[in-house]
């Protein structure tokens, strides 16, 4: 896809580190509400650029983060609890509530993710058998110790399967139409937060649960935020009591920030753009449910708009069913002194399954990269991975123990009906020699 990336202008470590520092400063400015709109636009732009730089390690959590930042550009995020508000000479709106196509897009985007993800889960393992959560927890690359502990409890997993599907489709709809009842909406928000906490405890999903929980904060009833603000105002003296020097320092810094008017209203042009993008994203998601049927309504050549703004999306996490194939990597290496080692773990070569496969990955980015490397779509990246492992191994060992030969294997297991697993099969992905 023709994504644009500022990060690709230079490949040096110093240049990338500089961009990460700039992104960190923009994120900090957004967090405290300093020049909020510019900080939001900068965070969105740098996030899109970073994701386009290395798409092999981007997952659903990155997608929803990028999309929430996109919609935040059309929302006055600095309107309350911000430096912008505290240093404002005047505010162009006294309304505490904001209603626009931007606010609608921010909330509906999160709902689209759940609803269309649920609609894409069409396999009998979700709709009839109730085995989808079992299959998801069987994916060794993801599963945590908590997830493994749940695997023997088939009845519980079946209930979780149907509960997940119902929550994804029904929960956002209830949240959208529960505005007259702040209590009901708070219950729905709490339910999704608990759902994501539980999901993160059972499956390694990187930033995905945290980003979704942050997204649900937009649904928290205004009365709850007002109540929290009143409680903080009644206890306004507690920060000075606990950390007087820190409070004085922050006050001095704030005094140095020039005062300026705060503009909360979005111009009609920006509001129109937000409305058009909301319609565009809705049609995009509808087309993902049945491409052949809806491509006439939403032609494929319209994709260029979404790809340019990075609002392209496809919510197929564990859809239409969780992957039936799972396993682990074995990098069978032969050293110059003849020793056989697993270059992936640095230990003596063994084909025995690790006690916890998900723990063999350095982090979520490496997990996503290696899971993509296993698929045929990214087979062309395997030689570069082999060269990387060769270089890093040789840099850490003396010449006598340098790598002479490497075979990259994926030990494959396949989930079968009735909670069975197939025998292990060694799939060789790449072979390379570097010397005697």
Q: Could you give the distance between the termini?
A: 41 Å
How many helical elements?
19
Helix content: 40-55%
Give the helix/strand class. Answer: alpha+beta
What is Rg? 25 Å
Give the strand content: 5-15%
Averaged pLDDT:
90
Uncertain ranges:
none
Number of strands: 8
Account of the protein in words:
- With 436 residues, this protein is an alpha+beta fold.
- The protein is 53% helix and 11% strand.
- It contains 19 helices and eight strands.
- The protein has helices at 13-32, 36-53, 60-72, 83-86, 101-120, 124-127, 132-137, 145-150, 154-176, 182-202, 208-216, 222-234, 238-242, 244-256, 268-289, 291-294, 303-309, 364-374, 382-395, and strands at 88-91, 260-262, 325-335, 340-342, 347-348, 403-416, 420-421, 425-433.
- Strands 3, 4, 5, 6, 7 and 8 form a six-stranded antiparallel beta sheet that branches.
- A hairpin with a 4-residue loop joins strand 3 and strand 4 (340-342).
- Helix 1 (13-32) packs antiparallel against helix 2, helix 3 packs parallel to helix 11 and helix 5 packs parallel to helix 15.
- The chain is globular.
- The model has no long low-confidence stretch (mean pLDDT 90).
